[in-house]
Specification:
Layout lengths: L2 H21 L29 H16 L1 E6 L5 H14 L2 E6 L2 H14 L6 E5 H9 L3 E2 L29 E13 L24 E2 L7 H12 L5 H8 L9 H10 L4 E6 H9 L4 E3 L7 E10 L5 H11 L2 H11 L2 E2 L20 E2 L2 H12 L2 H6 L2
Parallel strand pairs: 1-2, 1-3, 6-7, 9-11
Antiparallel strand pairs: 3-9, 4-9, 5-7, 5-8, 5-9, 5-10
Helix pairs in contact: 2-10, 3-11, 5-6, 5-12, 6-12
Amino acid sequence: MKKSTVWSILSIFMCLLLLLAACTPKVETSASPIAPTTPIVPTSAAKPASVSAEEAAWAQVVADAKKEGNVTVYAYSWVGDIGLAAKRTFEKRYNINLEVLTGRQAEFEERLKTERRIGQVLGDMSEGSCGNNNSMKMSGLLTSVADDLSTLREKDVWLVNPTFLDPMDKVNLGWRQTIDTPWVNTNLVKPDEYPRSWRDLLDPKWKGKMGIRDPRLSASISATFTALLDKKVWDEDYMRALHRQDLRYPLSTIDDVNMLSRGEINLSVIFSGATGGPAALEGAPIRAVSMKQGDSVSLACIAAIAKSPHPNATKVLLNWLLSNEGQEVMGKAESNLMVRKDVADFRPSPAITEMIDPTLMTSAYMDEGTRRFRERWYDKVVGR
């Protein structure tokens, strides 16, 4: 066969192969076939709890307080470990620096007046007796923030509502209780010599051996006198007779507890259990005695200082002091009776009295006591 014939046959065969390949349907392959997918249906995830407007507002107060970063307290009773207890726990909780300046409230009132006059207020919160705080309020040095405090919206947790003494303005908030009654030095006064009635204090054996906080410096003492007079436990003749017993006049509760503990006086007539409790725990030979005509039950107050440099941090501190944690921490530190039901009574046994007929301090007594304090009423009554 000729070469030309062979090449012709091969050419025809190649054309047939190419034609066959072109007519065969293509099958696409995949190295890893993909199975049909099932549509993903979103699960019914729990919706976040709705935040009330009040909760959101309080969260903003806390956030703004942390930006301020500081809060300063003008404190009457936060001396030593008490102030440290507040500082450590509050700073750990909120990362806000707490500075505590201690002193007499009458002096703080004058300091605040000066700060206001020069336009440079340094303090944020006042702590101490409701009587002296009431005097500051009447001078326009304090302001109400009660409506902003989340703790005050809690229900059924109060032994005494913090707004009890200031229900209209809600400037001064009661945060702990104190029982004001006579205390004795147990090294100098034996149990069978304890006075049992206020009239017992007029016995000549007590002459020159008793003290009482100076009403010139304590609006709370004036308020206590007012309450005892109103209940007819005392009268002005009794006050004059008591003064003739050559009373000593400590300048503060700290002076009072020191004089009684050291034996400079045998008995303190109106002694603060808030100060006596911690001193008794530390070994001071002192204890409270009950009067059958009744003792005085009062509150200590906290309040925001008007035009303070750290208003939000002030609100956070006030709120914390009225919270369960704040009451627990400070109740233990002060060995005291607080205002919440869900906190224990931390008073030691020497500070607990029978409370036969307690006289509860009211806003009316406080206001009248403050007026009398400012007018030096006691000095006029006793001729001092």
